[in-house]
Design goal:
Blueprint lengths: L5 E7 L1 H101 L4 H19 L7 H10 L13 H15 L3 H4 L1 H16 L6 H110 L4 H18 L3 H45 L3 E7 L4 E6 L5 E8 L5 E8 L17 H11 L7 E3 L3 E2 L9 E3 L6 E3 L2
Antiparallel strand pairs: 1-5, 1-6, 1-7, 2-3, 3-4, 4-5, 8-9
Helix pairs in contact: 1-2, 1-3, 1-7, 1-9, 2-3, 4-6, 4-7, 6-7, 7-8, 7-9, 8-9
Length: 504
């Protein structure tokens, strides 16, 4: 049997189990206290993060209000500019109307001087002129009313001659004044009429003698009619020329106004586009500032929360690896790595999620780590007890190794036999002893019935197990190995040595 691995599970003694249970309770209380402190720290960090978000929100609202105020001021300025432009246009139209009314006034004054039209008719036109001036002074645009009045003044008929008797010289002088009042332009504007009037006046001069009164009166009517017609034709020609000139000026003014309006509209449109683009840039810049501020706040919160759990989480990972069970720390270690990577990548939402995962995993990881440390301490205590028991049985302790999840111890006997003992734990934490023996001169007899079968190694190890502390320490179960005989084939201890006799 020498060299065949032997193993035995180990139970804790009642007192040892009680001490371990008390230690487990203390650890649980410590975990609860730590988690309570961490929860308080998370709450404090959450309050600070909320306060920072509130301050950022207030600042963002202030900046948005400032942008809105500036935009409102710019809009008010544009409205004021439009109103000023309208006022300037109205003022200019008012000046045009006033100039037209001044021309009508001058025409009425000329009509009065020339005797054109009846006095009542001229007074009526002057009254209408006064009313138009009042309307213009009130800011009303007169439009075609001025031209209508001008036409009525131009078309005034000459005043009829008085009913009293007039001598030929007086009549002739009046007719000559009427021709002269037409002006020098009459010959150019109405050459036939001017020539006809001139001829009739010559004939009247020739007929001015007293003995030709009848002829004079006959020619007088013809001359008055010709002068009236000539004055009307010239006035119409003048009015047509004036109207044409006015229309030309109006066309030029309209074209200039249209061009100016188009240029102003284009400039206004370009200015509006520039303003809209500037406003859009301001809004985009403000939105970007808010996004960056929110990102920084979230990253700060994630960093602070990670800072609160990084050390204990990394401690779980490191300690679990040292104790030979890195699987306990893998999950929380992966979450810790993700949180660190997401923070480095400035991915706030992913970082917060990873930090929350670390926070959620940490309590259970610490609980599992506590169980792992208790199992480790259990193995260490068992190592101490086993080393003492084996050295008491004459073994020499040659050293050992801590392999994380287990301890490996090396012993030798004076006979030269070597015992390599492994102190491990099963999945549920139950201690397990495994012996590899080499060089032990055990004798196994496969004899007929009633022949002795002795196993000194088993007896030696059972004595060692009996010295592991009992209720105060550890209680190993039955030693076992591959090929161990069944109970009815076990040997009884011989009286003269440490051998056993085969059971009947």
């Amino acid at each position: 049997m020498s060299g065949s691995p032997k193993y035995s599970t180990v139970r804790m003694g009642a007192a040892y189990a009680a001490r371990e249970a008390a230690q487990r309770r203390r650890r649980e209380e410590q975990r609860r206290a730590r988690e309570k402190r961490r929860a308080a720290e998370r709450a404090r960090l959450a309050r600070e993060a909320a306060a920072r978000r509130d301050r950022a929100r207030v600042e963002a609202e202030r900046r948005r209000a400032e942008l809105a105020r500036k935009e409102a001021e710019r809009a008010a300025g544009r409205a004021a500019e439009r109103d000023a432009a309208v006022a300037r246009a109205r003022a200019e139209q008012g000046r045009v109307d006033e100039r037209g009314l001044d021309e009508v006034r001058d025409l009425l004054a000329g009509a009065r001087r020339s005797g054109a039209g009846a006095g009542a008719e001229i007074e009526a036109l002057e009254g209408q002129l006064a009313r138009l001036r009042e309307r213009s002074a009130g800011g009303e645009r007169l439009g075609g009313a001025v031209e209508e009045l001008r036409g009525r003044v131009v078309n005034l008929s000459p005043a009829a001659a008085g009913d009293g008797p007039q001598d030929s010289a007086t009549v002739l002088a009046g007719l000559e004044r009427r021709l002269s009042a037409v002006g020098t332009e009459g010959a150019a504007l109405d050459p036939d009429g001017h020539r006809r009037c001139t001829e009739l006046l010559d004939q009247l001069r020739a007929a001015a003698a007293p003995d030709r009164q009848v002829r004079f009166e006959a020619l007088r009517g013809t001359a008055e009619h010709a002068l009236t017609r000539h004055a009307s034709v010239v006035a119409q020609a003048r009015e047509a020329a004036r109207q044409e000139s006015a229309e030309a000026r109006q066309r030029e003014a309209a074209e200039a106004a249209r061009q100016e309006s188009a240029e102003a509209a284009a400039a206004a449109e370009e200015a509006e586009r520039a303003r809209a683009a500037a406003a859009e840039r301001e809004r985009a810049e403000e939105a970007e500032r808010e996004r960056v501020a929110a990102l920084e706040l979230a990253l700060t919160e994630a960093g602070e929360r990670l800072g609160a759990v990084r050390a204990p989480a990394q401690g779980v990972v490191d300690t679990a690896a040292e104790l030979g069970d890195p699987g306990i720390g893998d999950e929380i270690g992966d979450a810790l790595g993700r949180a660190t990577a997401e923070l480095a990548a400035r991915s706030a939402s992913a970082a917060l999620a990873a930090v929350a995962e670390v926070e959620g995993l940490l309590p259970d990881a610490e609980r599992r780590l506590d169980e792992l440390e208790l199992a480790y301490q259990r193995r260490r205590d068992l190592v101490e007890a086993l080393r003492d028991a084996m050295t008491d049985e004459g073994f020499a302790f040659e050293g050992g190794e801590d392999e994380g999840g287990s301890f490996r111890l090396h012993f030798t006997r004076p006979t030269g036999a070597t015992y390599e003992t492994t102190v491990a734990s099963e999945d549920d934490g139950t201690p397990l002893l495994v012996y590899h023996v080499d060089g032990e001169p055990d004798v196994t007899l496969y004899a007929p019935q009633d022949e002795p079968v002795c196993d000194a190694t088993e007896a030696l190890l059972e004595r060692v197990h009996g010295a592991l502390g009992g209720a105060e320490g550890f209680v190993p179960d039955e030693l076992s190995w591959d090929g161990k005989p069944p109970p009815d084939r076990r040997a009884k201890t011989l009286p003269h040595d440490t051998s056993r006799r085969q059971a009947p």
